[in-house]
Automatic annotation (TrEMBL):
This is acylphosphatase. Keywords: Hydrolase. Its EC number is 3.6.1.7. The active site is at R46, N64. Residues 31-117 form the Acylphosphatase-like domain. It holds the Pfam family Acylphosphatase. InterPro entries: Acylphosphatase, Acylphosphatase-like_dom, Acylphosphatase-like_dom_sf, Acylphosphatase_CS. PANTHER family: ACYLPHOSPHATASE (PTHR47268:SF4). It is an enzyme of class 3 (hydrolase). GO terms for molecular function: acylphosphatase activity. It catalyses: an acyl phosphate + H2O = a carboxylate + phosphate + H(+). Belongs to the acylphosphatase family.
Amino acid sequence: MSVFKKLRNEYVIWHANRIKFPKFSPSPIVRKKVSFSGRVQKVGFRLEIYSIAERMKLTGWVKNLEDGSVEVEFQGEELQISFLVHCMQSLKRASVKKLTIIDLPISDGEENFIIVR
């Protein structure tokens, strides 16, 4: 791993860990597929999503797509997922130009949030 990438990753994790979560009211458990398009690759976008999703105890996965977008499946409380999506839209080092959200059926037995390579 390059020195630059290592420093960027350390910064991304530091930034993700500084985000203050509001007190969420209980909300339904949902699963959503979210596609982020714009300048979302090579800026630590997946790592930021992963770090925040882990802190929130969401399950699912995140991956880069060949078209330059990032695709995510989140499962967890709806208000938490909405908060995380909003955080990613307002990220300064990235630029989300288009956002697509699709409701999916719940996936039973999923326990972790992972980065798909």
